[in-house]
Design goal:
By secondary structure, the protein is of the alpha+beta class. 26% of the residues lie in helices and 22% in strands.
Amino acid sequence: MKEKYEEIVKDGDMPVCPFCNPDKKTVIADKKLCYAKMDDFPVLAGHVLVIPKRHFSYYFDAEKKERDEMWDMVSECRVILDEKYSPDGYNIIINAGDAAWQTVMHMHIHIIPRHYGDNAPEKLRNYRV
């Protein structure tokens, strides 16, 4: 099982949130309240994360304007991914809490392009996204 990302990235003894100060080179789309970046640990090629700029852990803690903007960003990312990867479908995943396999405690939405025969179901069953 993969270690939690917060346990890997540290500043001294304190965990560093990998989403609060993204490397601008990894950002593929940006809005006022959220941004999208390629996942550092992709399940499949084209795996993107939509991340609110405000730090909070759970989807249910998002303000309505943040939820609305994040879902707009999901749609924008779909256009980007359609052009680059021409997938047959998508997994759109939100994990809320450790019991739901959330490994970075900064809310985020996974967008994973899928192709017939990509053998990802096994990866998705065993991957803590």
